[in-house]
Design goal:
The protein has about 130 residues and is mainly α. Helix content is about 55%, strand content about 5%.
Length: about 130
């Protein structure tokens, strides 16, 4: 039987937390952001009876950053070389794995430790009792 997708963040919550995207873009990115957050938190959020505010805040930030990253990649707005006529330099752009690492670090920094703890046998339900 297929599991239903239960969103941690409504569009209204997203807007209240400072999100600026339209509802269609939000819906497109929200599911991707939540699935990535679930992988970072080892699916522990799914076992919570209430979703902490920190999770909503992290998802809002994920969605905003994902939109910026996607737009930069699609529009070719990522600068890789600069020259002012006197000096010139170039640098490597952030690839997708670097972007995901940035999001993962954000989650670790913002979320409670019981959601991001890497212990293999960590039981969030037992911890919360």
């Amino acid at each position: 039987m297929q599991e239903l997708f239960n969103s941690y963040l409504t569009y209204q919550d997203y807007r209240e937390l400072g999100g600026q995207l339209d509802e269609n873009t939000f819906k497109h990115l929200e599911r991707k952001a939540q699935r990535y957050l679930d992988s970072i938190t080892f699916d522990r959020i799914k076992s919570l009876t209430t979703i902490p505010d920190e999770v909503r805040e992290v998802l809002t930030e994920f969605i905003n950053r994902m939109d910026i990253y996607n737009n930069q990649r699609q529009n070719g707005d990522i600068v890789t070389q600069y020259s002012n006529g006197v000096e010139q330099f170039s640098y490597k752009t952030q690839d997708e794995s670097g972007f995901k690492k940035e999001l993962a670090q954000l989650a670790v920094d913002w979320l409670p430790a019981y959601l991001t703890n890497r212990l293999v046998c960590f039981d969030v339900e037992r911890y919360l009792q």
